[in-house]
Amino acid sequence: MSSPRARLALCALMLLGLSGCGVGDDFSDLQAYMDEVRARPKGSIEPLPKFQPYEAFTYSAAALRSPFQPPIKIDLAKQQKGSKDVHPDETRVKQFLEGFNIESFEMVGTLSNGSGSFALISGAGGVHRVKVGDYLGRNHGKVVGIDESKVDVIEIVPDGEGGWLERPRSLALRERS
């Protein structure tokens, strides 16, 4: 076993030996690299790519039939002819819900109070209260009946030959999911 004095001397000798490592002013490799970097041509950064301006896209098929619903087959022989007596009232002020397709609405409930009964219709960004006589949908749809399970609507649609047809529709109550 060595004495503590010998250990201390050995440690001091090792520290003295290690302190001599790396002493010197030879930075020639670092200086050569710095000279190479400084010698590179200035302006070697590539210019930014040219971006094309954004062109807004307007979806123009919003009023058409959804491609996920089956097409309605029309038998031309059985097709009803329009009547000149039936036509929409173009002079009345349009209601808010007439700006949306009737397919976007569904019935979610009913309300009754002293002034009558109302249907709660979900769609067009919220839940709306409608009563008999209100209009909804883009085809001049008028609410003609409300019961606990459905809202009955009569739409006035063109027949394609200058006349108008009344088309009944119903919005069924949506069951909880």
Automatic annotation (TrEMBL):
Signal peptide boundaries:
1-24
**InterPro entries the record matches:** PilP (IPR007446)
Instruction: Alphabetically list the UniProt keywords.
Output: Lipoprotein, Signal
Q: Does the keyword Disulfide bond apply?
A: no
UniProt-listed Pfam families? PilP
Instruction: Identify this protein by name.
Output: Type 4a pilus biogenesis lipoprotein PilP
Gene for this chain: pilP
